[in-house]
Each structure stands twice: as C-alpha cells, then as structure tokens.
Specification:
Length: about 300
C-alpha cells in the first residue's frame, strides 16, 4: 500500500470537465488509480489565483462538490478518510480519499469560511500557493514576509481542530512562523534544495526543523524540483531520498507526487499507475524497512491525531 499526500485532480475536473473514469489528459483517473499500488490519495482544493477574490470561495465549494459527487458518492470502493477510525477501517479492496486545501486565498479574511471548508472534511491546509494572501506570504513573494496576525488565527483554528498545517509554497519566514505555532506540520510536496536549487525545495535547516517538530515531508515528482536540467529520471529522485535520510528524515519522509498539478513529468513516472515502476526501482536501492516507511508507515503514524 502507498499513500500519496498531494494531487491536483479536482482542479483539472473543475476546469476541463474531464472523464474521471479514464482520460488520456489526466495523470490520475479512476482507472489508473485502481491499477496502481496507491491505496490512499490526498486530493487538493486548488483555486487559481487569477479568479476575482469574491469568486474564489465559491470555486472552492465547487471543487468540494466534485469531490463528493464524482469521487465519493458514485464509487462504493472509495472511502472519504476524515479520521483515524476511517483509516483503520479501510479494507484491502477499498481506496481512501483525503481532502486538502492548497492555499488559503479562497477564505479571504473570514475564519468562518475556513471552518466551513474544514467541516466538509478537509484534513490538511496549505497556507499559501505561489501567491501572497491575507494569511501569509509565499515563497515566490518579493516581500519575504511571514505569517500575518490573521494567519496566526488560522493556525490556531487548525490546531484546535487537529488539522495539518502545510508549509509547501510558504515563504521562509512563514515556514518558521508555522513551526513556532502549529501542532501538526507537513510539507506535502517539496524536495531537497541541496540536491536541486529550486526555491520551492527545503533547505537543510528547514529539513532539520521539520524533523525536530516531528513533521512530514512529501517527496514530489515535479521535474524542476528534482533536477535542474532535463531529462529527469526516477533515479534522480533517489538523490533526494538519500539526502533526506542523511539529514535524519527517514521517519518523516512520504510521497506527494503533485500529479495533475504538473505538465512535464519524470521519465517513467508520468501517471499514478507508474508507482509500480517506482516501487521496482526503489527495491533495488533501499531496504524494505525504508520503503515501507516512505510508502505508508510515516504517514499512518502521524495521521493518528485526526479525530
């Protein structure tokens, strides 16, 4: 069993109305999912920042509706995972779907909107995407600010409701602001900056800080986060895994593919069904103990905080 902490399928379905069952345009669809070793997948609510602010929350609700009406309700084998109990009760022939939010810009400055989204079953909240918002500055920001006063209120709500605070896309100052306050921290889809110098990746100090806070790090399949020049192969991911392990993150590393959030893919790893190929190559390089930790055990251990 594999658990993947980040996928942008909901955005693709909202924007293009693809066939969820099977589509050559999607890196993740039901046919590919059912023919992959991934049993639990996190699906992000990603609202594009080009939309007017007054429309963004409504679009977030539309993606939640897609999640329920296309993924959960019509498919008896797909279970919405909202708690540790849901996870424990998941059967081998069932698939688990976790709902997440990528960027708090849809809530504006309204905590009630955040609470409503959480009540729909969101279990992980990214404070920013690549755009600044009322909660925090992003890693792409020229301002290099951190978490705002309103953002601290957001984190307080996430703590109270035992929701993961996701630091992927967040500014450096924002990252450390989160670690100072958040109870449950994850970088859902970020690689190692030392291996590939992209600003979206985590530097060594950040990796150490996440390990010290017992956070999670989602190894991502974004080619430009993996290697600075093309082509990118599966073995290039292993350089990141090795570095994370050397930095003491063996018990904190998971997968966060970013399928359907990317246009270019790693060679041999272009859809969720290619996880089999990744598994095969990992078995040549790593012990079963390490593979199990990255594939599922590290995630399962920390999902226990979900009520």
């Amino acid at each position: 069993m594999i658990i993947d902490a980040h996928c942008d399928l909901l955005y693709q379905l909202w924007r293009y109305n693809y066939d969820l069952n099977s589509s050559e345009c999607l890196q993740f669809d039901l046919n590919k999912w059912r023919n992959s070793p991934v049993q639990i997948q996190a699906f992000a609510i990603f609202v594009p920042d080009y939309l007017p602010q007054q429309k963004q929350y409504d679009v977030a609700l539309q993606m939640i509706e897609i999640f329920y009406e296309q993924l959960i309700i019509p498919n008896q084998d797909i279970i919405h995972i909202k708690s540790k109990q849901d996870l424990d009760q998941l059967q081998p022939d069932q698939l688990g779907a976790i709902l997440t939010l990528e960027g708090c810009h849809p809530i504006g400055t309204d905590l009630n909107k955040l609470i409503k989204i959480i009540n729909y079953g969101v279990r992980m909240v990214g404070l920013t995407w690549n755009n600044d918002n009322a909660v925090a500055d992003s890693i792409m920001s020229a301002k290099r600010g951190g978490v705002t006063a309103f953002g601290r209120e957001v984190i307080q709500v996430l703590n109270q409701k035992q929701i993961w605070t996701d630091v992927s896309h967040l500014s450096i100052n924002g990252f450390y602001d989160v670690l100072d306050q958040a109870k449950h921290v994850i970088a859902s889809h970020s690689n190692a900056f030392t291996i590939c110098q992209h600003r979206r990746n985590l530097d060594d100090q950040q990796i150490k800080a996440l390990v010290e806070r017992d956070g999670l790090i989602g190894l991502t399949f974004v080619p430009e986060f993996t290697k600075s020049n093309q082509p990118v192969h599966i073995k290039d991911l292993f350089k990141h895994i090795d570095h994370f392990i050397n930095m003491g993150a063996e018990n904190h590393l998971i997968f966060g593919s970013d399928f359907d959030g990317i246009t270019e893919t790693i060679e041999g790893l272009s859809t969720v069904s290619d996880y089999y190929r990744l598994q095969e190559q990992m078995e040549k390089h790593y012990s079963q103990s390490i593979i199990k930790k990255i594939a599922r055990e590290n995630f399962l251990k920390r999902f226990s905080h979900q009520r």
